């Protein structure tokens, strides 16, 4: 089964190796037809504590790390593009 990948904004980085990511989606109201925003918060694993408050990130569904953490941060998203991270060789 393919892993789900979502894009959201980091709203909390206070926990050790964990960030809280808010993912917003737009849905059409069933009766009135107006487009409304719905959001959900996901706890995602951040091994190096490298992601900070306000950054836009991609998260991927994984096997559970803990009771609430079943997502992992993949990378940052910059203006519609994925940030290239260079390795020090």
Describe the structure.
With 89 residues, this protein is mainly β. It has one domain (5-82): OB fold (Dihydrolipoamide Acetyltransferase, E2P), CATH 2.40.50. Helices cover 0% and strands 52% of the residues. Strands 1-2-3-5-4 form a 5-stranded mixed β-barrel. It is globular, with a radius of gyration of 15 Å.
SSE map:
Blueprint: E1 5-12, E2 18-28, E3 35-45, E4 56-61, E5 71-78, E6 81-82
Parallel strand pairs: 3-5
Antiparallel strand pairs: 1-2, 1-4, 2-3, 4-5, 5-6
Note the main attributes of this structure.
OB fold (Dihydrolipoamide Acetyltransferase, E2P), 5-stranded mixed beta barrel, mainly beta, globular, 6 strands, 52% strand, 89 residues
Secondary-structure arrangement, i.e. CATH architecture: Beta Barrel
Largest sheet, strands/sense/barrel: 5 strands, mixed, barrel
| Relevant CATH superfamily | Nucleic acid-binding proteins
Proportion of beta-strand residues: over 45%
Strand order of the largest sheet: 1-2-3-5-4
């Amino acid at each position: 089964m393919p892993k789900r990948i979502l894009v959201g904004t980091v709203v909390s980085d206070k926990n050790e190796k964990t960030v809280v990511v808010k993912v917003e989606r737009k849905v059409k109201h069933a009766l009135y037809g107006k487009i409304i925003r719905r959001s959900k918060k996901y706890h995602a694993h951040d091994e190096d504590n490298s992601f900070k408050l306000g950054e836009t990130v991609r998260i991927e569904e994984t096997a559970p790390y803990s009771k609430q953490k079943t997502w992992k941060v993949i990378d940052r998203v910059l203006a519609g593009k994925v940030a290239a991270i260079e390795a020090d060789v």
